[in-house]
Amino acid sequence: MLELKNIYKHYTTGEFTQTALAGINLKFRKSEFAAILGPSGSGKTTLLNIAGGLAQYDEGDLLINGQSTTTFKDADWDAYRNNSVGFIFQSYNLITHLSVMDNVMMGMDLSGVAKGEQKSRALAVLERVGLRDHLHKKPNQLSGGQMQRVAIARSLVNDPDIILADEPTGALDTKTSEQIMALIAEIAHDKLVIMVTHNPELAAEYATRTIEFRDGQVVHDSAPVEVLEPTHDYQMRRTSMSFWNALKLSGKNITTKKWRTGLIAFASSIGIIGIALVLSLSNGFDKQISSAENDTLSGYPITISKVATNTSFGPRRLGTEETTETEDRDSQLIYADKGAEEEPHENQISPAFLTYLSQLTDEQISGINRGYNSGLNLVRRQAETQVVNQDTIGFASYPTPNGSDQQGFLKENYDLLAGAYPKSEDELILVIGENNQLSSELLVSLGFAEDAQLTFDQLIGYQLKAIPNDEFYQPAGAYFKAIQGEEQLKAAYEKPSAKSLKVTGVIRGKEDLEIAGLSEGLKYAQEFATEMIELAQNSAIVKAQQEADYNVLTGESFTTEASQPESDHRMGSGASLSAAVSSITKDQLLTKFGDSDSPELITIYPKDFATKEAVLTYLDDWNKGKSESEQIEYNDLAATLTSLMGSVLDAITIVLVAFAAISLVVSLIMIGIITYISVMERTREIGVLRALGARKKDITRVFNAETFIIGTCSGALGIGIAYLLTIPVNIVLENLTEMANIAQLNPVHGLLLALVSIALTMLGGMLPARMAAKKDPVEALSAD
Residue 584 in contact with residue 290, Cβ under 8 Å? Predict the structure, then answer.
């Protein structure tokens, strides 16, 4: 059954080589009790280790049922130890953190025996050795004899062919030794038992064969075997420890060191706590930014202007510089920029596009505003009759939806303080500031004192009149001149053609409106602007200017380009207009007279985030299939601002997370050290597992399972503590910033951090786990 053929084994220490076995030739029967005797250092234990597959021979061959082992790999030796060999050690070598039952079942875990069968087998062998009533005790609760009985039960439970016993009674008293020897002798009736002992009396009494060793050689064999019948059908089951079994084994070890494990988990969780808090604050502030964007949609609408502007932040490069090596930043010379300016994109706001915009629904937008850069001839009669500068009084249109409720935008974003919302094109609404203020310049323009304190009732019913061009500009030969003076203005004011405008209500932005969409001043309906433009286009001064190649107000020739900003040309009085129109183009002057073909600016106010995305997609759809010159470019300033804030917040978050991650690196190193300490503490356990047939990868798996448990505890502890810390953090931030519930830990972030904790902990323990797997099982079993 078992044959050693010319076995040699050498141990080398430095330059010294010791021969432990020198050409051993032994054959063992299928069932016999062979006792190996000899002085210390004679090679007895080495022979036992080689026969059990714990140590490898240098020369010769070990035959198992006639099968040579010269080609055996690690997996074959592991399977051999698990299937065919049971070990009984002098020091018992029980795993201290496992119960009696678990110690006995460990070998079956490796061989893949079903749980039900494991229990029934374990109970049977424990009853055979007389320990049926001690199943759930730990080894330290047993006597020496009882522990050796557990070791015997463990060696028998997988029904091996060979039992190898190394001084099984060396640590026992005489009476207990006799009991153990009797039990081993009983086992030898149907198994091969090879026992190493220093006690010749026990060997003579119980063994059926004695073999004496001296200096690594056999000097006497009481019952040598001449011939063994070869067996060639020897099959072995491969061993494997599942990760679940590794978790249970390591979990039971960890429970014996609860405080140490808790402190390790807490120390490892510090980095997770820091990162979780940073992410919680980042998440909360990000939501605040998103909320702010939502609140400011009315203040920062989507805008489409005739000339698309660049709203990016930072210095804008208008051209590509072409410099030479001599053009130095420190040079005292000035060089011309040879690059070409980037031409701005001109949006073609056509009637078709305006019709396309009109198809946006009230569910998508709260309002849409079309602003025309045309001059209106406004006259008021307050104290005296005077022309009113429309810029000074904030005279502009208010946004209206495409649906039936034309006051929808005003109702959603403004509180009505007095009067009523405008219902027709000749009604105005007055917008005042958050503290009920109006600029002194505006009040003076309306005819009130600079420091006036007015009631709402004094403003309700306030009246302006828009004078048509034909009444405001009078022919003077080949030219025109604006009416001036009290009498002329009064006469124009009282004519039926003058368009009367009356203030019907006073509104103020709602308290939760972060940025008002409308500036302070008087606002009119877009229908009014459309009507006035149509009147202007049919007026005599517009027709005359269209035909003339000179300025019909001044008689001067036109410039090629305007030399003043657009806002400077927007005048309300003839005198000031004459002074300002000497340096504008013909097209600009026609626009000031009201000859506007398309809006200068379109502002779109989406309902909320979701609808804003839908509106932007709708605008993008217009551009599909069109050439670049036909496409419409728009600005979404709210998104630009929040993107900027989000980018800054992301940068801060990354920096803070990076600092917090330093503690994770420290934790990784600490876990490596702790796992190495655990390997040192569990060295004997490693040897026991290898003796039971555990593979190297199973040993690695055991320690990976331990770091997995620590990492899971660390992650759960870190996330839990971070979540609890958000409570006081939110209280402090609310007191400092008046923003509630800022720190909000995203569950997804929590889960990811828990996974990071597990991954880093297992990474930290990877090297010590590999070191554990490489330990020599013989040396591990002899470790203190």
Answer: no
